[in-house]
């Protein structure tokens, strides 16, 4: 059993129902972000799944500085604060440098540590000291059991409200695979485990706006397998027009199809939870 953690007005982990982290990859502007948040809020209430709204104010790890990176920290936080206020949703975004931790803590309910930065001591310690829930993405280049090191760094900084997110492992160059053994291994570390389904189908080395940069057709099958293997939550980036998304267009999930997909995952989770 993983630890039970409070996020907003609900609990995750520890045998609680499957929860959802969802939203656009990047904040594309106020209006579209609020539209997505409203639709996700309505959907979450309809199918009874607890929702954490996710959107990045800065995509600091894109392939080129000429690509759209987001509105930046200040404008992005204003939009996330509006989402939080208007729809009564907990909000999540990622930080990329230690100084950002202090600046985001009054808005974000969950601070996310990007996979490529998940071993950075200074970043983890500054995030831990905010007192917020910390979602750490497993780096694509480490085994699941090595997430213990990130946990120890966060605990050293005073944080014990931790989420561990699997998002695939490098398989040679450019490709990712999801080893289903990762989920029980991560759960043994004692904290809620999330499967980032949509990032797991990205193909590196190809810009995400190129349809060859992702394999969206495998999102559903990976999601079903991961939930059956045993997770506490799922991470699904979504957009009303995936082909026009400003980041991860090749792998983001269509918002109009999300309800059916989530119903599948909830059915599987409810059936599998007594075994994992």
UniProtKB/TrEMBL annotation:
Keyword line: Cytoplasm, Transferase
Residue span(s) of domain DAHP synthetase I/KDSA: 9-268
Chief place where the protein resides: cytoplasm
InterPro entries per the UniProt record, alphabetical: Aldolase_TIM, DAHP1/KDSA, KDO8P_synthase
Enzyme Commission (EC) number: 2.5.1.55
Compartments where located: Cytoplasm
Record GO biological process: lipopolysaccharide biosynthetic process
GO molecular function, one term: 3-deoxy-8-phosphooctulonate synthase activity
Catalyzed reactions: D-arabinose 5-phosphate + phosphoenolpyruvate + H2O = 3-deoxy-alpha-D-manno-2-octulosonate-8-phosphate + phosphate
SUPFAM superfamilies named in the record: Aldolase
Pathways involved: Bacterial outer membrane biogenesis; lipopolysaccharide biosynthesis; Carbohydrate biosynthesis; 3-deoxy-D-manno-octulosonate biosynthesis; 3-deoxy-D-manno-octulosonate from D-ribulose 5-phosphate: step 2/3
Alphabetized NCBIfam families for the sequence: KDO8P_synth, PRK05198.1
Family, per entry: Belongs to the KdsA family.
Protein name: 3-deoxy-8-phosphooctulonate synthase
Natural source organism: candidate division WOR-3 bacterium
């Amino acid at each position: 059993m993983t630890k039970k953690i409070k996020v907003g007005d609900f609990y995750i982990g520890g045998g609680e129902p499957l929860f959802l982290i969802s939203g656009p990859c990047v904040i594309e502007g106020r209006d579209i972000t609020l539209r997505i948040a409203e639709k996700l809020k309505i959907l979450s209430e309809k199918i009874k799944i607890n929702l954490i709204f996710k959107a990045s104010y800065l995509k600091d790890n894109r392939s080129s500085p000429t690509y759209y990176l987001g509105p930046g920290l200040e404008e992005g936080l204003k939009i996330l604060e509006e989402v939080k206020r208007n729809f009564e949703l907990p909000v999540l975004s990622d930080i990329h440098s230690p100084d950002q931790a202090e600046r985001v803590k009054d808005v974000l309910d969950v601070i996310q540590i990007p996979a490529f930065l998940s071993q950075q001591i200074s970043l983890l310690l500054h995030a831990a000291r905010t007192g917020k829930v910390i979602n750490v993405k497993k780096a694509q280049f480490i085994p699941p059991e090595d997430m213990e090191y990130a946990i120890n760094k966060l605990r050293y900084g005073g944080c014990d409200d931790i989420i561990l997110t699997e998002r695939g492992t490098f398989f040679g160059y450019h490709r990712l695979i999801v080893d289903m053994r990762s989920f029980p291994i991560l759960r043994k570390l004692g904290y809620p485990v999330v499967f980032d389904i949509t990032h797991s189908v990205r193909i590196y080395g190809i810009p995400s706006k190129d349809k060859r940069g992702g394999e969206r057709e495998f999102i559903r099958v990976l999601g079903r397998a991961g939930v059956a293997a045993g997770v506490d939550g799922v991470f699904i980036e979504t957009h009303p027009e995936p082909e026009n998304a400003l980041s991860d267009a090749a792998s983001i999930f269509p918002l109009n199809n999300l309800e059916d997909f989530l119903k599948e995952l909830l059915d599987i989770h409810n059936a599998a939870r007594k075994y994992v």
